[in-house]
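User: Can you help me understand a structure? I only have the sequence.
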Amino acid sequence: MTSTQTGRPRGSYAKTAARRREILEAGMDVFAEQGFRSGSLREVAERVGMSQAGLLHHFSTKNDLLAAILDFRDDRDREQSAIEIGSGLEGIRGLLRLVEHNMRVPGLVELHCVLSAEATSPDHPAHDHFVRRYSWLIDGMTLSFQMMAREGQLAPGVEPASAARMLIAMMDGLQLQWLLDRDAVDMAEETRRSLRPLLTVEL
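Assistant: Let's start by predicting it. Here is the structure, written out as tokens:
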């Protein structure tokens, strides 16, 4: 079936997708700069040169936009930090690069922390995002630890799946502590310290 047969020109899809990406990029900048509470739909709309009503044509509520921003952020972070979850030691190193990057975008870390708590409700727009995210992270880190165990890079007695869950839980807790007092917490260094007893190699 061609775009003419559907009555929807292919170009309109491209324009809509490009506009949504533009909104997501602007939204990520706004919430990175201003944080979860201060960032607004009005500010995002102004940055892309549209009305708030026009923005709501693409994302019906602020929470819908925030959930989409989280997905967009994760995709971009994976690319920029060269994270290869499930790639053994390199997967762990990629995760550390992501932690270092997060320390430069406190507004997005705040957005993640606030929404992850709210999204435990199944009807929250970001619920599926966090279910997918934790599944991807834990499965990937488990695979990385399993690969490292086969290479003799994992300390004796370390159970890969348990280590993966503990690592992700520790990172989430560090984010909260860091948001409360950024001068007192170095997330990247604390993550390294937590990993060292699990490994037989240097990160």
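Now, to help you interpret it: The chain is about 70% helix and 0% strand. Confidence is low (pLDDT under 50) at residues 1-5. Let me know which part you'd like to focus on.
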